[in-house]
Input
Amino acid sequence: MTLRIACLLLLAFSWAATANEVVIYRCTDSAGALTVQNAPCPKGHKQEKKVMQSVGTVPMGGTAPARSPSAPTAKPTPVTPLTTAPAPTTSDATLAADEATETKARKLPPPVLFQCTTYDKDTYITESEEPQSRCVTLRTVGLDGNPSTGAGEACEMMRDQCARVPDGALCAAWEKRVGETEVAARYARPGNEAKNKAELERTKKIYSESSCGE
Output
């Protein structure tokens, strides 16, 4: 076997090897012919043994495919959980204000009042549309025109002038009415205390239960 064939056999043996090491035998016969094989030389041949590291196998007729660099693994984007906005809540203060407004809307307007003016330009608030009458003292003189010799006393009946309070001013008028009855109850004459106190409580009740009361 020629040296060329021996080399091809050596390569074939190398590719077919699956072990980690490959053993090569160089055999020379008595005529000096050289044979390379992977089995021990025949008897009578000069043998040279050589151990070689095996190489990775390569598919016949091609080259080993090049490894593509590993693509960087994309990190998953964290998903933010959807949060549902809490339903708007109505505060206790708002509820109380709405309830107060509704309660006030259900209240009736205050009763009608009248503002009256006396003969001497004093004013007062009253619930009666009938003007009061008062006796205004007159000066009396004697027959000679002397006031000191006047006979007795005389007075003239005069009626107060009253007008209905406009609707837009009723709350203010009722507030003034409550103030007047409070003064009367505080400075009541002996014997009138209970009457004046009852009148004060009555006017306060009317005011607070009307649409004027908060």
